[in-house]
């Protein structure tokens, strides 16, 4: 995977992924194919009947057959339309079902990507893959693909009909083929990369638009609106230029197609007239040949005009398949979690459930893109069932250590084991992470809880809510657990969002739980309730808690003090105060009297979070 983009699959990989996603649709696909073939065959029958009618009218046929021929033409037209509609509907259904599974697999792979990778790529790129590309492929599946397949079959059947009438007419009708082939080859050679470039440019624009919307307040505060707008303008112009290039290529392609159609029609008219005058061909047969050729123009035009949509859909499918076929250890881990593996499955797949939540960290070293180590030589041990608070000034490495412990980051050096199992082989259900800003998914309270454990019944959910003190307010919602919360639903306070996240943790029941400042967004009485909820959620499991408030850290069994990416001290609150050092200074600053402006009257740690 490049540093700027998710991978794009090749043709074989894309076909393999799409085939796997549509494997259970084989029966419907065969029925759709039969309907489209029969519909295309009707295209051949109708011109033959019209030719027969011409012969009858001109006196070279049995007039008694005029009525049946006319009725047959009408019936075959209707039958062809019905078969085409059924074939198109079934084709769209097969494709939509396959795309639905492809979207699920792509989303599962994206969710399983390491968080630093997702952050580096940006939400615009991820959304472009899982929403924009699926939308493009879906539009083609519903409309363009059935028309494309029908046109291809019609072309083959019609060419066979021309050859059956007279080889010379078929040869005249084939004159446009070299033009079509040359124009199509040139178009495909140019349009493929152009569509891929257009999709990438759109993703880059979407990413910057999303960044501007989510960070609008920051942009205003720093007076960066003009600079951000300038970048949006630049990326919009790049996307417009890419779209214009594909449009120009498409217009040139259409001019070649129209010229080829004119050449073919003139050739058949001249050849047919010569054959009729020489008596080698009836007027009805010549009329049939002209009608067949004109019937060819429409499917060929459809076939070739739709190439741009098929090209765009192919590029979208390749981007989706690229996400699905990216098989990093993290992606496999995410898929295993989604399948809900038990302990035996986890061992078979190389992922193990630990015997307990005991955490051992030895000699960790890790850094970010700038190359400088963010943490160095970090070593500590957390006993099973013990709660450890991680404290330190801003930039001390607290979040980095948590990322290494939970497997979000891969250390440069050192090791992390939970219950004796290395973090790289650890089953994803062995650890639980609750972030500072807990996310509420769009859906009901029940939906938000079932994410942690899909098989949880209502008693288990209500027990989890009750354990963290959230059952009363959850049942008081307008529709109880069925109340829609999150975007577009019932708004929840920060404390309630955090309680919901802690209830998910209780349902998931991991032996090791990691909490990133769980009381950060709670105030007054809510803070006391949150502390009680945290205590309840961590009961019986090992807990790692990032604590910006030293009053929260004091409640832990032991405290890990970090400073400049290293372990400064590790012990109980009382031990650390007796030993002096950084923690004693931080505690002294924390508990010092403050004036009206919140100043302590002594030099403190400038990066420390206030009370």
UniProtKB/TrEMBL annotation:
<keyword id="KW-0812">Transmembrane</keyword>
<dbReference type="GO" id="GO:0005886">
    <property type="term" value="C:plasma membrane"/>
</dbReference>
<dbReference type="GO" id="GO:0015421">
    <property type="term" value="F:ABC-type oligopeptide transporter activity"/>
</dbReference>
<keyword id="KW-0547">Nucleotide-binding</keyword>
<keyword id="KW-0067">ATP-binding</keyword>
<keyword id="KW-1133">Transmembrane helix</keyword>
<dbReference type="InterPro" id="IPR003593">
    <property type="entry name" value="AAA+_ATPase"/>
</dbReference>
<dbReference type="Pfam" id="PF00664">
    <property type="entry name" value="ABC_membrane"/>
</dbReference>
<protein>
    <submittedName>
        <fullName>ABC transporter ATP-binding protein</fullName>
    </submittedName>
</protein>
<keyword id="KW-1003">Cell membrane</keyword>
<feature type="domain" description="ABC transporter">
    <location>
        <begin position="359"/>
        <end position="589"/>
    </location>
</feature>
<dbReference type="InterPro" id="IPR027417">
    <property type="entry name" value="P-loop_NTPase"/>
</dbReference>
<feature type="region of interest" description="Disordered">
    <location>
        <begin position="328"/>
        <end position="354"/>
    </location>
</feature>
<dbReference type="Pfam" id="PF00005">
    <property type="entry name" value="ABC_tran"/>
</dbReference>
<dbReference type="InterPro" id="IPR039421">
    <property type="entry name" value="Type_1_exporter"/>
</dbReference>
<feature type="domain" description="ABC transmembrane type-1">
    <location>
        <begin position="30"/>
        <end position="312"/>
    </location>
</feature>
<feature type="transmembrane region" description="Helical">
    <location>
        <begin position="144"/>
        <end position="163"/>
    </location>
</feature>
<feature type="transmembrane region" description="Helical">
    <location>
        <begin position="28"/>
        <end position="50"/>
    </location>
</feature>
<keyword id="KW-0813">Transport</keyword>
<feature type="transmembrane region" description="Helical">
    <location>
        <begin position="70"/>
        <end position="95"/>
    </location>
</feature>
<keyword id="KW-0472">Membrane</keyword>
<dbReference type="GO" id="GO:0005524">
    <property type="term" value="F:ATP binding"/>
</dbReference>
<dbReference type="InterPro" id="IPR036640">
    <property type="entry name" value="ABC1_TM_sf"/>
</dbReference>
<keyword id="KW-0997">Cell inner membrane</keyword>
<dbReference type="InterPro" id="IPR003439">
    <property type="entry name" value="ABC_transporter-like_ATP-bd"/>
</dbReference>
<dbReference type="GO" id="GO:0016887">
    <property type="term" value="F:ATP hydrolysis activity"/>
</dbReference>
<feature type="transmembrane region" description="Helical">
    <location>
        <begin position="255"/>
        <end position="276"/>
    </location>
</feature>
<dbReference type="InterPro" id="IPR011527">
    <property type="entry name" value="ABC1_TM_dom"/>
</dbReference>
């Amino acid at each position: 995977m490049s540093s700027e983009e998710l991978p794009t699959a090749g043709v074989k990989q894309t076909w393999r992924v799409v085939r796997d996603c549509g494997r259970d649709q084989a029966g419907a696909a065969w029925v759709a194919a039969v309907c489209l073939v029969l519909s295309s065959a009707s295209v051949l029958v109708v011109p033959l009947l019209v030719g027969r009618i011409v012969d009858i009218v001109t006196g070279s046929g049995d007039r008694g057959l005029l009525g049946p021929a006319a009725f047959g033409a009408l019936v075959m037209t209707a039958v062809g339309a019905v078969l085409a509609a059924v074939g198109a509907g079934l084709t769209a259904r097969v494709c939509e079902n396959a795309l639905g599974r492809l979207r699920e697999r792509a989303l599962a792979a994206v969710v399983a990507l390491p968080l630093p990778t997702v952050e580096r790529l940006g939400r615009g790129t991820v959304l472009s893959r899982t929403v924009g590309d699926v939308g493009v492929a879906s539009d083609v599946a519903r409309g363009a693909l059935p028309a494309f397949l029908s046109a291809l079959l019609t072309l083959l059947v019609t060419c066979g009909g021309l050859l059956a009438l007279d080889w010379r007419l078929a040869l005249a009708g084939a004159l446009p083929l070299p033009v079509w082939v040359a124009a199509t080859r040139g178009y495909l050679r140019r349009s493929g990369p152009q569509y891929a470039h257009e999709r990438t440019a759109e993703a880059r624009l979407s990413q910057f638009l999303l960044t501007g919307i989510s960070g609008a307040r920051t942009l205003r505060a720093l007076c960066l609106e003009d600079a951000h707008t300038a970048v949006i303008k630049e990326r919009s112009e790049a996307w417009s230029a890419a779209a214009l290039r594909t449009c120009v290529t498409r217009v040139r392609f259409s001019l070649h197609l129209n010229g080829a159609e004119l050449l073919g029609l003139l050739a058949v008219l001249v050849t047919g007239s010569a054959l009729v005058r020489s008596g080698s061909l009836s007027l009805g047969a010549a009329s049939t040949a002209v009608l067949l050729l004109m019937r060819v123009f429409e499917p060929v035009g459809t076939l070739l005009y739709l190439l741009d949509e098929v090209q765009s859909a192919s590029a979208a499918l390749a981007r989706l398949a690229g996400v699905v076929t990216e098989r990093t250890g993290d992606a496999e881990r995410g898929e295993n979690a989604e399948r809900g593996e038990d302990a035996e499955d986890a061992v078979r797949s190389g992922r193990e459930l630990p015997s307990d939540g005991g955490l051992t960290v030895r000699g960790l070293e890790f850094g970010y893109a700038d190359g400088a180590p963010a943490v160095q030589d970090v070593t500590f041990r957390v006993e099973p069932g013990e709660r450890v608070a991680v404290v330190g000034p801003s930039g001390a490495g607290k979040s980095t250590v948590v990322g290494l412990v939970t497997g979000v980051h891969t250390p440069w050096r050192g090791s992390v084991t939970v219950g004796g199992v290395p973090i790289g082989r650890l089953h994803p259900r062995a650890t639980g992470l609750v972030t500072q800003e807990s996310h509420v998914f769009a859906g009901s309270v029940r939906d938000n809880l079932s994410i942690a454990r899909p098989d949880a019944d209502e008693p288990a959910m209500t027990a989890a809510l009750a354990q963290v003190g959230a059952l009363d307010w959850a049942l008081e919602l307008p529709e109880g657990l069925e109340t829609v919360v999150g975007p577009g639903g019932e708004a929840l306070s920060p404390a309630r969002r955090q309680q919901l996240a802690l209830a998910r943790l209780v349902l998931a029941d991991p032996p090791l739980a990691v909490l990133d400042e769980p009381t950060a967004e709670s105030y007054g009485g809510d803070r006391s309730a949150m502390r009680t909820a945290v205590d309840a959620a961590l009961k019986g499991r090992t807990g790692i808690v990032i604590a910006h408030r030293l009053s929260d850290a004091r409640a832990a069994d032991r405290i890990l003090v970090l400073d400049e990416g290293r372990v400064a001290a590790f012990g109980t609150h009382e031990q650390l105060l007796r030993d002096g050092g950084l923690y004693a200074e931080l505690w002294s600053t924390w508990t010092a009297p403050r004036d009206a402006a919140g100043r302590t009257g002594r030099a403190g740690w400038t990066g420390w979070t206030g009370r």
